[in-house]
Specification:
With 174 residues, the chain is mostly beta strands. It has strands spanning 14-26, 30-46, 53-73, 76-86, 101-102, 105-106, 116-128, 134-146, 150-158, 163-172. 0% of the residues lie in helices and 64% in strands. The strands form three sheets. Strands 1-2-3-4-7-8 form a six-stranded antiparallel sheet, with no helix packed on it. Strand 5 (101-102) and strand 6 form a beta hairpin. The model is unreliable at 170-174 (pLDDT under 50).
Amino acid sequence: PTSTVDSNVDNDEGSERGYLYSTWHAGDLADFTLGINYTHVDLTASAAQIPFDSDVISDYSWNPKAAINLYPTSSLTLRAGYFETLGSSALREFELIEPTTVGGFNQVYFDALPDAKSRNYALGFDQKFAKSTYFGSEYVRRYINLYTPLAFSTQTIDSDSAQIIDQGQFTLDA
């Protein structure tokens, strides 16, 4: 016997962003970067679980950005940065026209954590050696808050009657 269960979802997701960055140069000694980003996201509540759910979750965030690059010698750069982000989804992040780095530190992560708010602290250095040889290292501490719970559902469907005979759902609150 063949049976069907109707379930569909309307993925009406979107995001809007705006940003403002400014970098001040203090001669050959330092560069200071300050900025802010506004992010608003609309995400489908549970497009990946059965039964599909078209409810939309909305969130927004003002995200500060700051960095300092120091040049103690012509061959050494010391970097420090702080920035916050609000993620939408891995695919939506490809649409950015905003700078992807702050003070040389990556601020875009393709980790597919919708609605993840992160606070990032970073330190680094870059050393130029003779000719075209460079060496650098950086440390980034990323604190992630996932405000939207991840939900999963299970269903047992009687294929003869197309009736749901058992249903369960659990959430992982991050």
